[in-house]
Specification:
By secondary structure, the chain is of the alpha/beta class. It has 3 domains: 114 residues, Response regulator (Rossmann fold), CATH 3.40.50.2300; 135 residues, Response regulator (Rossmann fold, 3-Layer(aba) Sandwich), CATH 3.40.50.2300; 146 residues, Reverse transcriptase/Diguanylate cyclase domain (Alpha-Beta Plaits, 2-Layer Sandwich). Helices cover 46% and strands 21% of the residues. Helix 1 links the parallel strand 1 and strand 2. The chain is flat and about 75 Å long. The N and C termini lie far apart (58 Å).
């Protein structure tokens, strides 16, 4: 079953007769994910709801006066994801639960009440705009793994390849692949060769690779892990083991991304910081040379920012920086990089963009800032920015220096954009 699952703005229904547990789970979901949730504690309450308005259901399998057939008859036809929970797991129950086709089955414990559920919701949110790649020459194995991943996850797409050579081509065509399942024994290029080639370009946290083999020889698993696999599975494995392995590796990747985000983001503006800018811009600069693509740098500065702080206070100065950052973020393309360069200065890296188009982007941003009014408490605040635009230089540092010189010229009159003469 292909579930209709979304992350942002998700509305969840919790079905649980333990009112204390349900209420605390609801609070935890709100606190960590800010999802809208409702709670019902009985079958009567459940029947009174319009179930179609919910995007996901989290339900206890055992409730007083509650028949799990209600899930089969009324929730499964909606094709919405279902997480089942219980405090009393056993083999017979697991068989019954598998028929209800949940995306996960979670055992309630005192030591880990909500962590697993929250982690699962975070993983689903994390991968909703990412793809998965299955590399295997066996059509049967590919189909089985694809059906399992479609059942448990909401990847934007699951792509397949019959060997390592095709796998590398698919990876080149789809930059947003996050999770890769690869078999070991394949024609043309085996799993070890494929993994080594992936790792030449991508780190362990950038592309997650789970290697699979029917050979139980420990040397094979060691070989694949040394080649750069994040984890290893020996065939045959069941559906639950595959999903646990995927969950664990995705969770680690998600946590590493969060750490990077903290390291690379400016906390006040929400833009990338100077360190991130130079890390990425230098790599993209080299790419532009190889691909013969033009790049343009824009330097911005808030006019008379010291007067804003002196007249209104530093808190309002912070709001001005935040509002300027919002305008920058919403008026650049997806692959452009905007960062807070320092104080009231900002820089934008525009890839595959000539200087005239860069000038137009800078001018659009300047006009947006000039036309807005900030209403803070009883104050109405208007301010302007100046910008310098350049596409000259043999390095990122040189390009920034040239853009900064153009900004200096713009600051002579303020509220204008100056570009390099070609």
């Amino acid at each position: 079953m292909d579930y209709i699952l979304k992350g942002y703005g998700m509305k969840i229904l919790i079905i649980e007769d333990d009112k204390f547990y349900a209420k605390n789970l609801q609070k935890e979901i709100k606190k960590q994910l800010n999802y809208e949730t409702d709670v019902v504690n009985s079958l009567k309450e459940l029947k009174a709801l319009d179930l179609d308005k919910y995007d996901m259901f989290i339900s206890d399998i055992f409730m007083e006066n509650y028949d799990e057939n209600y899930i089969e008859k009324n929730i499964l036809p909606l094709k919405k994801p279902l997480i089942l929970i219980t405090a009393f797991p056993d083999k017979v129950l697991k068989e019954k639960i598998s028929k209800l086709n949940p995306i996960d089955f979670i055992v309630k414990t005192n030591s880990n009440k909500f962590d697993y559920i929250i982690d699962k919701l975070k993983i689903l949110n994390y991968i909703e705009d990412k793809k998965c790649l299955i590399v295997d020459d066996s059509k049967t194995a590919t189909l089985i793994n694809m059906l399992s991943l479609k059942k448990h996850y909401n990847f934007s797409n699951i792509i397949t390849a019959k060997d390592g050579v095709e796998g590398l081509e698919k990876l080149k065509e789809n930059k947003d692949i996050k999770l890769i399942l690869t078999d070991y024994e394949m024609p043309n290029m085996d799993g070890a060769g494929f993994i080594k080639n992936v790792r030449k370009k991508y780190n362990l946290d950038e592309k997650i690779i789970i290697a699979i083999s029917s050979n139980s020889d420990k040397e094979i698993s060691t070989k694949l892990l040394k080649a750069g696999a994040n984890d290893f599975l020996t065939k045959p494995f069941n559906d639950e083991e595959l999903i646990c392995r995927c969950d664990n590796t995705l969770k680690i990747s998600m946590l590493l991304d969060e750490v990077k985000e903290l390291a690379y983001k400016d906390t006040l503006s929400g833009l990338y910081n100077r360190r991130y800018f130079f890390d990425v811009a230098n790599k993209m600069f080299l790419t532009s040379l190889r691909e013969n693509k033009p790049i343009t740098i824009i330097m911005f500065d808030i006019d008379h920012f010291k007067k804003i702080n002196d007249n209104y206070g530093h808190q309002i100065g912070d709001v001005v920086i935040q509002k300027t950052s919002e305008i920058l973020k919403t008026n650049i393309r997806k692959n452009d990089i905007a960062c807070r360069y320092g104080g009231e200065e900002f820089v934008i890296f525009l890839y595959d963009c000539n200087i005239d188009d860069g000038y137009d982007i800078a001018e659009k941003i300047r006009q947006k800032v000039e036309s807005q009014e900030l209403h803070i408490e009883d104050k109405t605040i208007k301010y302007t920015i100046s910008a310098g635009v350049s596409n000259k230089g043999k390095s990122i540092e040189e390009m920034i220096k040239n853009a900064d010189e153009m900004l200096y010229k713009a600051k002579e009159t303020r509220n204008c954009v100056v570009k390099d003469n070609i």
